[in-house]
Amino acid sequence: MNLTEALLVSAAVRFEHYSDFGETFSGKLSARYDFSDSFALRGSVQNGFRAPSLQQQFYTATSTNFINGVPFDITTFPASDPVAVALGARPLEAEESVNFAFGGVFRLAGFSLTVDAYKIDVDNRIVLSENLTSTAVRDYLTSQGFIGVGGGRFFINGVDTETRGVDIVANYTLQTDQIGAFNFTLGANFNETEVTRVPTTSELAALNPAPVLFDRQRADVRARHAFR
């Protein structure tokens, strides 16, 4: 809706119902203000929801690994499996996100430039744990009655991430009398993702030594730059 000749606002609401995760509302609110025919500012805020996928809930696979010459079965367990539960797995929950964007549009004759900065916060991201195969883990599983299980891994909620970035797109249209119009586009995107929280379980934290559930190397800041 155009509230004024220069101000455009828009809103959207989405309702979802999942038989295993319940109900959720998500929405988006955005606005754009044209100061002139050549310059405008725009911004938006929205939240998101992603239910666990089927493979994250039910995928399983087993391989035999030799640890110090002794074969052990290493399994990717569903979060509902008794072994995964013994290691601290819980029923998977949905991922939730909030993102903000703010930018500007500049136009002059056949040239246009858009610059948008954004920030995306994702809570409870679902990740695959490390392979938990240490001696402490194997001894613990044996004490819980899981004989012959050499360890394993499972999907778990608990990683929070923050992504910040800038997206830049430039377009230029060159008109010629003989051939027609040429359209040139240059785009660039700069972003980085930082892990702000990693998962832990009380069961694994009580072991000595406590195994790492989500490796630090996988939690480092990820920076990306793309051009097109």
List keywords for this structure.
228 residues; mainly beta; ten-stranded mixed beta sheet; 4 helices; elongated; Maltoporin, Chain A
Number of domains: 1
Helix content: 10-25%
Instruction: Give a quick account of the main beta sheet: strands, pairing sense, barrel closure.
Output: 10 strands, mixed
Overall pLDDT: 89
Rg over CA atoms, rounded to whole Å, is: 25 Å
Low-confidence runs: none
Distance between the termini: 33 Å
CATH topology-level name = Maltoporin, Chain A
Beta-strand portion reads over 45%
Name given to the CATH homologous superfamily: TonB-dependent receptor, beta-barrel domain
Content-based structural category: mainly beta
Overall, the morphology is elongated
CATH architecture identity? Beta Barrel
| Name of the CATH first level | Mainly Beta
Topology readout:
Layout: E1 7-18, E2 22-34, E3 39-50, H1 54-58, E4 61-67, E5 70-77, H2 82-86, E6 95-108, E7 111-128, H3 135-143, E8 149-175, E9 181-197, H4 202-205, E10 222-227
Parallel strand pairs: 5-8
Antiparallel strand pairs: 1-2, 2-3, 3-6, 4-5, 6-7, 7-8, 8-9, 9-10
Description:
This protein is mainly beta. The protein has a single domain, classed as Maltoporin, Chain A. The protein is 10% helix and 59% strand. The protein has four helices and ten strands, in the order βββαββαββαββαβ. Strands 1, 2, 3, 4, 5, 6, 7, 8, 9 and 10 form a ten-stranded mixed β-sheet that branches. The radius of gyration is 25 Å and the shape is elongated.
